[in-house]
Amino acid sequence: MSEDLILCPTCETENDALNQTCVSCGQSLIIVCPRCNTVNALTAEQCFACGQHFDTLGQIMARHEIRQSDRFTRQAVGAIEIQQTEKAHTQARSDQLWEKERKRQAALIVQKREQQKQEKQLIIGAVVVAIVVIVIVLIIAATR
Ligand SMILES: [Zn+2]
Ligand SMILES: [Zn+2]
């Protein structure tokens, strides 16, 4: 049996590991964690989400629950997908915010540099004007 196949515990049909139910008899091939409702592979010894150990009783209960309400399983899977989508969205949002903030910071630095440059030019301009005025005054004074 390859890693990609899972053996149905009821009819021993080989199923794709991604199948949630046996293609032959419809037996559930997943375990819904009794603690956090996360869907785990039938071969899992403990919940990958919360670490809950699946003892025999827990597994039987979980399987029973799945068989009783397939809709519940689909809801659980749906909830996980929504959670993961939301998580991805949150990540994307925070990435976007971070990107925005970085751009804002970069723009601020550029703005600051520009301001400093302008201030420097203003000071240089003022000094040049002052020197020119002094020179003119001196020339006027000398020609009198
Ligand atoms: Zn089966
Ligand atoms: Zn769990």
Structure description:
With 144 residues, this protein is mainly alpha-helical. The chain has a domain at 5-68. It is 60% helix and 8% strand. It has 2 helices and 4 strands, in the order ββββαα. It has helices spanning 56-68, 70-143, and strands at residues 5-7, 14-16, 30-32, 39-41. The strands form 2 sheets. The chain has a two-stranded antiparallel ribbon with strand order 1-2. Helix 1 packs across helix 2. The longest helix is centred in the last third of the chain and has 74 residues, at 70-143. The radius of gyration is 36 Å and the shape is rod-shaped. Bound molecules: zinc ion (2 copies). One zinc ion (ZN) is lined by residues 8, 10-11, 13, 22, 24-25, 27.
- The mean pLDDT is 83
H/E series: EEEEHH
Oligomer: single chain
Strand order of the largest sheet: 1-2
Number of helices: 2
Shape: rod-shaped
Report a brief summary of the structure.
The protein has 144 residues and is mainly alpha-helical. 60% of the residues lie in helices and 8% in strands.
SSE diagram, text form:
Elements: E1 5-7, E2 14-16, E3 30-32, E4 39-41, H1 56-68, H2 70-143
Antiparallel strand pairs: 1-2, 3-4
The structure holds zinc ion (ZN) (2 copies).
Key phrases:
about 140 residues; mainly alpha; two-stranded antiparallel sheet; 2 helices; about 60% helix; about 10% strand; binds zinc ion
